[in-house]
Amino acid sequence: MSDSYVIEVSSQTAGIVVRDARGYQFFAASHLFDRLEGQIFRNAREAERAARRLLTGQSMQMAS
After folding, report:
1. pLDDT truncated to tens, each residue of the chain (64 aa)?
2. Any domain includes 23
3. CA neighbours within 13 Å on the CB side: how many for 3?
4. Which domain of life is it from (predicted)?
């Protein structure tokens, strides 16, 4: 299993997630995704879903 992943949404780079002891931490690549900066996710797929919801304006339940 990889320690980092690039998260893309609608052909835009949203950021990267890097695994640490707590999970996968999100680092935004664009101001559009700043709201996710520093969030911890259980896995890269969860981070991708959060980025997609943010981009499409859907309500988000922030991970902790």
Report:
1. 679 999 999 999 999 999 999 999 999 999 999 999 999 999 999 999 999 999 888 655 544 4
2. yes
3. 2
4. Bacteria
Domain assignment present for 28: yes
| Domains in the chain, number | 1
29, burial (CB in 10 Å: exposed 0-12, middle 13-18, buried 19+): middle
Is 44 within 8 Å of 9 (Cβ atoms)?
no
Q: Which domain holds residue 15?
A: 4-56
The torsion of the CA quartet 42, 45, 51, 52, rounded to 10 degrees, works out to -140
Strands 12-20 and 4-9: antiparallel
Residue 62 lies in a domain: no
